[in-house]
User: Fold Restriction endonuclease from Syntrophorhabdus aromaticivorans.
Amino acid sequence: MSTEVRVFPEKQKNGAGAIRELIDASFKAFSEWDQSKSGDIDWIKRMRYNQTIVSRMGVEIQVSGRSDLLARDIVHIRNGLQDSYIDIGVIVVPSDDFEYYLTDRVANFSYAVRYVEKELREAQTYPIIIIAIEHDGTSSTPIEKKRTNRGRG
Assistant:
């Protein structure tokens, strides 16, 4: 799976919500990924061997929104694990460099690791992987920030 993202090389000039939409579109392009309802794990893949499900992976995408939403993502994964809905959780965050160019106060890789190691230490007992993603280079125009209902008026 590949999603090309080129950023305008200035601090906080690229809309994180639009980048999230690009990532979601890439997941949707593959039929083996199921999108969960709002308030649950973002994406789930059931890995099969000879028609038998051998593992279920849940993915939380944390590239837009506030950094404190990382705790909610960990709770979603914990609940999915406890309910035997998934076997492993993956949290996707922007790299420290990538996050510098995004408008939202999103958790970057360093923050996410520090949060799990220092703030929510119980998460270290869960099968969770934190993955950092990077942008693919620069662009001469910023990625437009999504406008919410509050920002339109």
User: Anything to note?
Assistant: The chain has a mean pLDDT of 90. Helices lie at 16-28, 69-82, 96-100, 109-119.
